[in-house]
Amino acid sequence: MILIAGDLAAHGPRPSETLAELLELGQATTIRGNTDRYLVDPATVPLRNWPADEAPERLRSLAWTREQLGDDGLRFLAGLPAQAEIDDCLLVHGSPASDEKGIFPTTPLEAFDTPAWRCVMACGHTHVPMHRRFGGRDLVNAGSAAWNLDGDPRPSFALVETDGNGAAAIALERVDYDRAAVVNDLETRKVPWRENVRRFIEGGRVN
User: What is the pLDDT of residue 166?
Assistant: First the structure.
């Protein structure tokens, strides 16, 4: 099965086409991320957490994406759950407590532990691929399918195999795509906030 941990459409040059690709997967389990929530409910955008010089352009990027998605795309995002349990896996975006509170390699266990996590917890949000093991439980962040922020901008994904008895084998994998073509597409389509997105795609870092 395919698990998708959210942040599906914001800030890219082809949001509508992206959702169409995801819908064609069929067997995928998909949850929403914080940027999906921003698209559906602009009132939840945490402006206070954004640098003042970035906020106007980032808001324009979200507005542009809403126009591209239209009513059907926004309705799809609005119908996604915040998290999901699939067999031995708990799927969240940031952490069980919040889609904006990410889990990093140094985040202590008590900051994100939950009784719902019995074998594997899969998460996203940070754009940093990670695998941590706590006794018989595994935490895995597949990173990002668009850009990672750990210095290696290549997309990543995770392969998770469980045996039904609480044991898991996890591999973090990297792939690549024509990132220059996407950067050109951002420019051609005049996507707002594209200079920041270009920096992420090309350099794999926030700054």
Answer: 66
